[in-house]
Amino acid sequence: MIAYIIRRVLQGSVVLAVVGFIAFAMFRFMGNPIENMLGQEATRLDRAALAERLGLNDPVPVQYVKFLGKAVQGDFGVSYRNGVPVAEMIVQRLPATLELAFVSAVLAVFFGIVLGVFTAIRRDGVLANIVMSTSLIGVSLPTFLIGVLLIWVFAVELGWLPSFGRGETANLFGWESGLVTASGLKSMILPAITLGLYQMTLVMRLVRSEMLEVLRTDYIRFARARGLSDRAVNFGHALKNTLVPVITIIGMQVGQIAAFAIVTETVFQWPGVGLLFINSIQFVDIPVMAAYLLLVGVLFVTINLIVDLLYAVVDPRLRVT
Amino acid sequence: MTAHTGATPAQSLLSVRDLIVEIPTRRGVLRPVDGVSFEIQAGEILGVVGESGAGKSITGAAIIRLLERPARIAGGSVHLAGRRIDTLDSDSLRRVRGGQIGTVFQDPSTSLDPLQRIGDQLAETARLHLGVSRSNARERALQALIDVGIPGAAERLDAYPHEFSGGMRQRVVIALALIGEPDLVIADEPTTALDVSVQAQVLGLLKNLCRERGTGVMLITHDMGVIAETTDRVAVLYAGRVAEVGPTPAVLTDAAHPYTRGLMASTPNPIPGDKHQRRLQQIPGSMPGLLSVPTGCAFHPRCEHTMAICSQRRPPSVPVRSSDVGCWLHSEVPET
Ligand SMILES: Nc1ncnc2c1ncn2[C@@H]1O[C@H](COP(=O)(O)OP(=O)(O)OP(=O)(O)O)[C@@H](O)[C@H]1O
Ligand SMILES: [Mg+2]
Fold first, then answer.
1. Using the beta-carbon criterion (under 8 Å), do B115 and A218 form an inter-chain contact?
2. Domains: count for chain A
3. What is the spatial distance between Cα B313 and Cα B324, in angstroms, rounded to a whole number?
4. Which ligand is nearest to the CA of B188?
């Protein structure tokens, strides 16, 4: 088990080093940092001094290692746009994105599993078939369209929910949270549905097909032959066997939610890191873009690691080896 | 019809009468089981043999109503200890399954929930059928493992199925089938998936446990050797019908139905030292598919004694010596 964890952590580190290299390459070779920071009027001497100070004269591998070293300490340099440290900008924006991703993920996993199980158990039921057909729409509509539609219906036509922004936030131990105020919660609903709908549909379809598979197995038949009730068979035996193999995929799908947040954040003007990234693209604010890339990489690797460990905990067959 | 067992449904442990199973398909309605009748007395071991596709497994599944969709029971009746069980509501049916009829499937590697400790699977079944407390159920689970000869049973209670070998796993399955104290066990080729070296052990175990407890057994198998060593009576199935059913020695050595005789002749030496079993002879042709079951007696195109009547009317089941046989050779041919 320990060896397994170490192996997974090492694999994750390799992935991060690669992502880090891409971020570094962007940082170092896209645009000209000196031009960006000094402008046209700077003297040759100024430029040379800055290049020396930024370490641009070092060999590229040394620069890469230094870049990574700084990144690990949370130093992503200074925004070209407003001179504020990138780390500060991100820390300020992160709670909005994480809360949105978290709520969407919870919605996606919860309703995905519930509906997946329901449509599998009631395979021939009318309601189950309606859910299945509706879910097709969920997969095929692009995120921004769903967002715009929701805004149109619930914000514009019905006027029930706000169409943009995060509402009021409250400071909880240094974390700006929108989950503790009424207006914050109201503002969360539409973006969270928009962001989570696609993943929910995927989770639902995955759970459904896996559960149908499990319900056909011999041990389920044998459980029935032992006289267990439908309830005991479905929820005592079939459900766990359904979820174990899909945990990894569900986890990865849900992990991607934070990365997909860009589109939703743009549609709803949600003040998170995704929106920050979009804005930084307009200004070719390379340090911010590089930092965002790294952040998403770390998020992916961490979630996959957690998911793998979880998998090992649930499946006894993996635990032994 | 079943003159020799002479039993009415009320007396037999299991009484299957004119059982019909249908499977609606796009190409028509199939009848994998077409009017099967047999009895099992309390404590008796009935072997069920027949070629692949004869309907053995479906008959077994139909008795506990565990048919896979879209197959369904379309006729006949099943009585267990005098009570009709083919029309039970689902709650009563669940009490029959596991509580009165235990089941052993062919492949032990897929019969057990891979994510649940075997002790929990056993205890779950015990609680369900015996209404015992949690701790008592665990004691019974332990005893059940000891009974089926699992070494170190106390430690193995908390093991998962994948930690057992195939033979040991089938012992666990047998423990699961018996823990609800059923009166009948339906075992569908319980040793076919096992290593040859442990087949005899596992079969012997099943036989001994059922003998000790007076549990009746419906033992489905291909293996004439198993039939000879284990069963009291045999039912021979052909194309979803019972060709012949009778005491094992009689059927093995002195069969009345031409199909049974052919089947015995094509099997190498089921009874050691038996003088009838020298030649290895194949029955010409093969069993018909369910879409093209011959009219009259389903066996007549392959039979060497075919008469005019055989292709016209289904033979009734009649007593011949100590067996019941469905063949015109042994029936009064009716006037047309
Ligand atoms: N869903 C189905 N659709 C069509 N035919 C089916 C279906 N299920 C079973 N059958 C047919 O029913 C017949 C009887 O099947 P059954 O499994 O009872 O045979 P068996 O005697 O147990 O054979 P084996 O010795 O191979 O296990 C077979 O011909 C099989 O092809
Ligand atoms: Mg079979």
1. no
2. 1
3. 18
4. 2
Chain B touched by A177 (CB under 8 Å): no
Minimal Cα distance from B175: which residue of A? A226
- Residue A255 located in a structural domain: yes
Partner-chain residue, chosen from A226, A236, A240, that has the shortest CB–CB distance to B98: A226
Instruction: Give the model's pLDDT for residue A257.
Output: 84
ipTM of the complex: 0.87
Residue B285, min C-alpha distance to chain A (Å): 33
Average pLDDT over residues A32-38: 69
- DSSP helix/strand/coil, B309: helix
- Please state the three-class secondary structure of chain A as a single string: CHHHHHHHHHHHHHHHHHHHHHHHHHHHHCCCHHHHHHCCCCCHHHHHHHHHHHCCCCCHHHHHHHHHHHHHCCCCCECCCCCCEHHHHHHHHHHHHHHHHHHHHHHHHHHHHHHHHHHHHCCCCHHHHHHHHHHHHHHHCCHHHHHHHHHHHHHHHCCCCCCCCCCCCEEECCEEECCCCHHHHHHHHHHHHHHHHHHHHHHHHHHHHHHHHHHCCHHHHHHHHCCCCHHHHHHHHHHHHHHHHHHHHHHHHHHCHHHHHHHHHHHCCCCCHHHHHHHHHHCCCHHHHHHHHHHHHHHHHHHHHHHHHHHHHHCHHHHHC
Q: What's the rounded Cα separation, in Å, for the pair A272 and A86?
A: 14
Q: Are B237 and B55 in contact (CB under 8 A)?
A: yes
In a domain, A77, yes or no: no
Residue A123 lies in a domain: yes
The nearest CA of chain B is from the CA of A4 a distance in Å of: 20
- Name the average pLDDT for chain B: 88
Q: The CATH number of the domain where A115 resides is what?
A: 1.10.3720.10
CA dihedral A286, A292, A297, A303 (to 10 degrees): 180
Length of chain B: 336
- The closest-lying atom of ligand 1 relative to the alpha carbon of residue B51 is 25
pLDDT tens digits for A131-159? Answer: 888 888 777 888 888 888 888 888 888 88
Tokens linked to B229: 């060593």
pLDDT one-digit tens code per residue, A239-298: 999 998 888 788 777 777 877 788 888 888 888 888 888 888 887 778 888 888 888 888
Q: How far is B108 from chain A (nearest CA, A)?
A: 9
Residues B236 and B325: their CA atoms lie apart, in Å, by 10
Residue A111 lies in a domain: yes
Q: Which two tokens stand for residue B121?
A: 């699977």
The verdict on a CB contact (< 8 Å) between B66 and A221 is yes
Smallest Cβ distance to A241: which of B113, B128, B176? B113
Coil, helix or strand for B15?
strand
Domain that holds residue A139: 86-320
- Percent of chain B residues past pLDDT 90, beyond the cut: 65
B321 touches chain A (CB under 8 A): no
Ligand 1: centre distance to CA B289 (Å): 10
**Beta strands across the sheet bearing B83-84:** B28-40, B14-25, B72-80, B83-84
